[in-house]
C-alpha cells in the first residue's frame, strides 16, 4: 500500500475538544488510538479544563483555556507529528488528556472510628466527626504522573477514598494539638477546618497536584453515655431552684385532678381543685414554719485537676502542695474551671504562695586558665595551689578573660593567699 493510500484510509480530525456532562470525571483521554490528527487542527480548551499532551510516553506540554492551532511548527506539538516521518504502519504514539480544573464539592467525610482525645473537664473522651470537603486539580502534570498514569477515564471515586483517609488522620492530629474543650468544639468548627486545610494543602500539592479548597466540620458527636450525662447536667441547670420546681409540679398535678370528673364525686369541679390547691399550699407553708431551718452545707474544699509524675488526679490545695514539695523539680501542671488551659504550678498564685522559695544554687568556684609544667588547662584555685606545691621550682602562670597577659600565680591575690596558707610560715631567720 502506498503512502497516499494510507492517508486516504486515515480519519482526519478537525477539532480536539472535550464536552463533559458526567459531573465526576477528573481526567479524560481524547480517543486518538485509531485516528490521525491533521496539521492545522484546532485544540479547544474550555474554562475549568486543562489539556495535557503526552508524546511517546513523555509529557510534552500543558495548555490553559483557549483555542490553539495544532501546527507542526509549534515545538510543543511537533512530537505529535513525528509519526509522519516514519512508516504509517507504526502505531500512533501521542495522547491528549483533558483534566478538569474546576472544584469538586460536597464530598462527604467521616471518622471511621472514634477519635480519643483528652478533655480538661471530662478527662479522656472519644468523639466522632462528620462533614464535607471540596478539592480541585491544581497541577495537571503532577496529577497525571502520580495518580492517573494511562487511565483514559479517571473519576472522583478513584481518589476520594484516599483523600478521606488523609483528612481524617490529619483531623485527629489537629484536634489533639488544638487543645479545645469538647463543649467548645462547636464554636470552633470554622477555625479547625481552615487550620486543617492549610496544613494539608502543601502535602496534597506536593504528592498529587491537588488543592483542598474547603474543609467543613458539620458535627462532632460524643459517646451515648457522655451525651446522657451532659443532658442530666443541663437539666439540673435549667431546673435551678428545686423548691420552686416542686411547687410548679404540684400546681400542675392539682389542676389535672380538678379537671378529672371522677375525683371526689361527680360534683367536683374547678372550685374543688382550687380549694385543694389552697389546702396543700397551706400545709406546705405550715410544715415549712414548723420545721427548724436546716444548717447550711459545709464549705466545699477547692479542688484542682492535677497532672504530674504520679499521674493525673483531682486534689485539694493541700494535697497539691504536698506533691509539689515532695518533688519540686518535676513538671507539675494544674487546671480548674475558668482556666484556658493547663498551667505550671509556679504560674498559679494560690499554689506558689504556699511553697517557700527555692534555695539559691551553690556558688560556682572561680576558674583560671593555667599554664605550668603539666601543660595548659582550666583549673580552680585549689587545683592550681596543689600544682604549685607539687612543683614549687617550676613556673606557674594563670590568665582570665579581660587580662592583657598571663600572670605569675604569686601576683594573683586569689591564689597567693591560699598558697601561702598551705605552705605555712617561712623558716625563722638564722642567728
Short structural description:
The chain is of the alpha+beta class.
Describe the overall structure.
This protein is an alpha+beta fold. The chain folds into four domains: 3-100, no CATH class; 104-226, 2-Layer Sandwich (Tetrahydropterin Synthase, Chain A), CATH 3.30.479; 304-352, no CATH class; 367-422, no CATH class. The protein has helices at residues 3-9, 75-78, 140-148, 157-178, 189-207, 224-239, 242-258, 270-290, 317-326, 349-352, 381-390, 413-423; strands at residues 12-16, 25-29, 36-45, 49-55, 58-63, 66-70, 94-100, 104-110, 115-119, 123-137, 153-155, 210-221, 303-308, 311-316, 333-335, 343-344, 367-372, 375-380, 397-399, 407-408. The strands form five sheets. The protein has a five-stranded antiparallel β-sheet. Strands 8, 9, 10 and 12 form a four-stranded antiparallel β-sheet that branches. It has a four-stranded antiparallel β-sheet with strand order 14-13-15-16. It is flat, with a radius of gyration of 43 Å. The model is unreliable at 6-11, 72-76, 83-92 and 263-274 (pLDDT under 50).
